[in-house]
Automatic annotation (TrEMBL):
It comes from Streptomyces tardus. This is 3-oxoacyl-[acyl-carrier-protein] reductase. Belongs to the short-chain dehydrogenases/reductases (SDR) family. GO terms for molecular function: 3-oxoacyl-[acyl-carrier-protein] reductase (NADPH) activity; NAD binding. The active site is at 140 (proton acceptor).
Length: 234
């Protein structure tokens, strides 16, 4: 059955791969984006998730066009990498404002109709960095780690209404961002991964689809790593 799906930050990279995977399966897919031209084939809504009014308007548009969101993939995020002693307070708070507080805004708005329907799937896109830590990414790691506690609290609150909430924690993924690294940087990263390669965006998307499927109806509050073994033990 075709569902109403929202992927935040679905205009590129992992988010776009996830959006395409749901669309290919026959779902009605909306994406949010902040800037640039969105890809074709989706209901694209410009939305900065740090702005509550934009979030509310985006959901109204989506609900009018394709119905209440039944599957939410909270993927939108930013980085502002810097060593701790050089990191400004704005560097720190702006990343948390998007990655953690922005996700709170989106999840809170999405789950209102899910509660009425007594059904829903929420998947938060975290990162292996939120589990392992990473020098120069204290802000990003903190925001991504925070998603775990947030998801598990939501899973406990909403489980009785047949709403699941899980976390997907990708490792290093072959996207435009990682392709911009030097060959030496890429080799160093791959050397840390037991499987010896980057993930493909489609591999992340496949896991997101599983967590939103009936096959995962009894999975909630879980953190699923898709990282080639990089974060083993966490």
């Amino acid at each position: 059955m075709s569902r109403s799906v929202l992927v935040t930050g679905g205009n590129r990279g992992i988010g776009l791969a996830i959006a395409r995977a749901f669309a290919d399966a026959g779902d009605r897919v909306a994406i949010t984006y902040r800037s640039g031209e969105p890809p074709e084939g989706f209901l694209a809504v410009r939305c900065d998730i740090t702005d509550q009014e934009q979030v509310e308007q985006a959901f109204k548009t989506i609900e009018e066009e394709q119905g209440a969101v039944q599957v939410l993939i909270a993927n939108a995020g930013v980085t502002r990498d810097q060593l701790l002693l050089r990191m400004s307070e704005e560097d720190f708070t702006s990343v948390l404002e998007t990655n953690l507080t922005g996700t709170f805004r989106v999840v809170k708005r999405a789950t209102r109709p899910m509660l009425r329907a007594r059904s829903g799937r929420v998947v938060l896109i975290s990162s292996v960095v939120g589990l392992l830590g990473s020098a120069g990414q204290a802000n990003y790691a903190a925001s991504k780690a925070g998603l775990v506690g947030f998801a598990r609290s939501i899973a406990r609150e909403l489980g009785s209404r047949n709403i699941t909430c899980n976390v997907l924690a990708p490792g290093f993924v072959d996207t435009d961002m990682t392709r911009a690294l030097s060959d030496e940087q890429r080799e160093k990263i791959v050397g840390q991964v037991p499987l010896g390669r980057y993930a493909q965006p489609d591999e992340i998307a496949a896991t997101a689809r599983f967590l939103a499927s009936e096959d995962a109806a009894y999975v909630t509050g879980a953190v699923i790593p898709v990282d080639g073994g990089l974060g083993m033990g966490h």
